[in-house]
Specification:
The chain has 208 residues and is α/β, with parallel strands linked by helices. It has two domains: 3-116, Rossmann fold, CATH 3.40.50.2300; 119-205, hypothetical protein PF0899 fold (2-Layer Sandwich). 34% of the residues are buried. The strands form two sheets. Strands 2-1-3-4-5 form a five-stranded parallel beta sheet, covered by helices on one side. A four-stranded mixed beta sheet has the order 7-6-9-8, with helices on one face. It has six helices and nine strands; from the N terminus they run E-H-E-H-E-H-E-E-H-E-H-E-H-E-E. The longest helix is centred in the C-terminal third of the chain and has 15 residues, at 150-164. It has helices spanning 16-28, 51-60, 72-81, 122-132, 150-164, 184-188; strands spanning 3-8, 38-43, 65-69, 87-91, 111-115, 138-143, 167-172, 191-195, 201-205.
């Protein structure tokens, strides 16, 4: 019976809707878990440092395929762990720029998948937030510092802010997979929330 390796940057709890869709797609293709296909799950629970070990474990299990979720971190870990086992990834950034594939039309090597290119839209998100709350002059951005996209996304937000006439304040989350922040300014501020992927939580100041 073939075995699929599932490698996720996230937790099993958070991934329930995604897994349900994955299992349905497999069933539509004639594969039912426990009947004619097995799935080995590996969860990093937001701890990206665990991904290389988890990926190596799946390679050692000799799975037929590795499906990754949770963005680039899982995809990079799988790609680094094997050059032969097929990898199907789901991400929000540019897989060509990241070196995961040769091109979108012809991925080459052993990796393929889908991308939403959501990581290239931070300036647009900032603009939409400003339109929604035009009175907000200070916008806080909560960043997952462990994300490979954090640096470029933060740069995009900083560059867009002057055009909108707003100030952005960057906060780093205390760790991957958490929205906890140690900064007193974050804790003491009045922030309304805006979700933004690997930039875990962006917010606008609704106070003074």
């Amino acid at each position: 019976m073939p075995v699929i390796g599932w490698l996720s940057s996230m937790s099993a709890e958070v991934s329930k809707p995604l897994l349900a869709a994955f299992r349905k797609a497999l069933a539509d293709a004639g594969y039912v878990e426990g009947q004619n296909v097995e799935i080995e799950y590996r969860w990093a629970d937001g701890n990206y440092d665990r991904l290389p070990t988890l990926a190596a474990d799946l390679v050692g299990r000799r799975v037929a395929l590795i499906a990754t979720s949770g963005g680039e971190p899982a995809a990079f870990a799988a790609k680094a762990a094997t050059a032969t086992i097929p990898i199907v990834m789901s991400m929000g950034g540019d897989p060509v720029k990241g070196g995961l594939v040769v091109s979108l039309n012809r991925p080459g090597a052993n990796a393929t998948g889908t991308t939403l290119y959501t990581y290239n839209m931070e300036s647009k998100r900032l603009g939409l937030l400003h339109e929604a709350v035009p009175g907000a002059t200070t916008i806080a951005v909560l960043v997952n510092p462990a994300s490979p996209a954090a640096e470029s996304q933060t740069r995009d937000v900083r560059e867009a802010a002057p055009r909108l006439g707003v100030e952005v304040v960057i906060f780093n989350a205390d760790g991957a997979g958490t929205s906890r922040v140690s900064s007193p300014r974050w804790r003491n501020g009045r922030w309304a929330r805006w979700w933004s992927g690997p930039i875990l939580l962006s917010t606008h100041n609704v106070g003074n």
